[in-house]
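Need a sequence for this fold. Nothing fancy.
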């Protein structure tokens, strides 16, 4: 039985910061960002947006009444968790009006956890083909100001409905993982921003790709030349280019740009969204490939610092295009507005008072869902249309 992605969509905030403005602020060549790291903009959440609102917004267009009724599990993948105990997905469950019998759990392993969620979801629906799993990946990537990683910030949420006989991508049963105990990027609970050894992290990303590829081949994986497209975890798009060249070298083939480029389009404008990043690249590939990919194979490389990597693959399903939300995605990107440097800094610092457990947030989010207030250390979300 085929299992995989039946529906997929993403959500991003309505405002972004342009990297040419960051270059001007720092007095450096804008090509350092546009070519050196391959990024043009990064998405910034409003004070009343977070992983819950982005995740719920991404899932909203995927859920008709019958799909909601079939969902018995919500797996929420994130590394920017809001509570050390309560899963962010429980707020999403409420906002989306999912059935009370649907279980919810939050999953973490840096940028990798959505891939683990997807694999577990496929295993679950193989056992219960009449059920569906909602996988949500949402993150806010916020680095220290004025550091080398500041230009690689971003945020966003991706939602996937996983089921039997999927309409978009049937996942292969084989895959290749590599796990290694390292510190390349991490965030202890007392820190707002991560600690990162940038150059080491890029090196470990490529080494993990090589190990995962070897494991994928050993597990009976497809040959490199059978992939019509390959998607990578994209902390910044240039990392994807490096990974693409590295993998082609390992497989002894040439790194053709057309197998990579459609997957980079959205990332250049959104920035890193950690656990959602690989799946944003998958949506970008499906939305932006001119060729009909129906019946063709896609390779995916997932990397989460710390570190776990996985090479996986799947077959795009014939007729998949009618199930994509391409126009919605393009409109969401096209209708964004640029932030001034001072407005960006205001958002970066977050709402005043949030740490004290009491705050009322004015409406700024463009979507259906928003964080209305934090009261008595409890987060209260609202939706404009009752779920
Ligand atoms: N024109 C064109 N290119 C230019 C340029 C210019 N004027 N000036 C510099 N460049 C190029 C450099 O030559 C360099 O190219 P190469 O990579 O080919 O050597 C590139 O721009 C980057 O410049 P630097 O080497 O000076 O590096 P940096 O100070 O900009 O830092 C970084 C880059 C280390 C990746 C930093 O952004 C960072 O720490 N980011 C966060 C960590 C990260 O994303 N790691 C990726 C792997 S880990 C992962 O994937 C998990 C995750 O999501 C975090």
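Here you go.
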């Amino acid at each position: 039985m085929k299992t995989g992605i039946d529906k997929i969509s993403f959500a991003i905030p309505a405002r972004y910061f342009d990297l040419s403005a960051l270059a001007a602020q720092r007095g450096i060549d804008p090509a350092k960002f546009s070519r050196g790291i391959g990024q043009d903009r990064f998405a910034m959440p409003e004070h009343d947006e977070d992983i819950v609102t982005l995740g719920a917004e991404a899932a909203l267009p995927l859920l008709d009444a019958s799909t909601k009724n079939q969902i018995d599990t919500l797996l929420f993948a994130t590394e920017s968790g809001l509570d050390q105990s309560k899963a962010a997905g429980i707020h999403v469950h409420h906002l989306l009006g999912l059935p009370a019998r649907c279980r919810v759990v939050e999953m973490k392993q840096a940028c990798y956890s959505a891939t683990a969620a997807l694999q577990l979801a496929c295993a679950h629906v193989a056992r219960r083909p009449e059920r569906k799993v909602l996988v949500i990946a949402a993150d806010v990537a916020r680095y220290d100001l004025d550091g080398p990683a500041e230009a690689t910030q971003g945020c966003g949420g991706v939602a996937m409905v996983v089921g039997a006989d999927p309409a978009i991508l049937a996942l292969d049963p084989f895959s290749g993982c590599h796990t290694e105990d390292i510190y390349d990027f991490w965030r202890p609970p007392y820190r707002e921003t991560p600690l990162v050894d940038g150059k080491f992290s890029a090196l470990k990303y490529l080494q993990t790709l090589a190990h995962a590829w070897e494991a994928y081949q050993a597990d009976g994986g497809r040959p490199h030349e059978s992939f019509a497209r390959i998607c990578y975890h994209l902390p910044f798009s240039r990392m994807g280019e490096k990974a693409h060249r590295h993998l082609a070298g390992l497989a002894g083939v040439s790194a053709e740009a057309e197998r990579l480029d459609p997957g980079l389009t959205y990332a250049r404008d959104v920035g890193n969204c950690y656990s959602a990043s690989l799946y944003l690249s998958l949506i970008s590939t499906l939305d932006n490939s001119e060729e009909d990919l129906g019946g063709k194979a896609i390779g995916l490389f997932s990397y989460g610092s710390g570190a776990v990597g996985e090479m996986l693959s799947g077959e795009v399903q014939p007729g998949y295009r009618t199930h994509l939300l391409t126009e919605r995605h393009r409109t969401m990107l096209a209708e964004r507005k640029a932030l001034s440097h001072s407005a960006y800094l205001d958002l970066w610092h977050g709402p005043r008072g949030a740490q004290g457990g009491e705050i009322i947030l004015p409406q700024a989010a463009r979507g259906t869902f928003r964080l209305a207030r934090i009261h008595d250390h409890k987060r209260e979300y609202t939706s404009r249309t009752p779920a």
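For context: The two ends are 33 Å apart (CA to CA).
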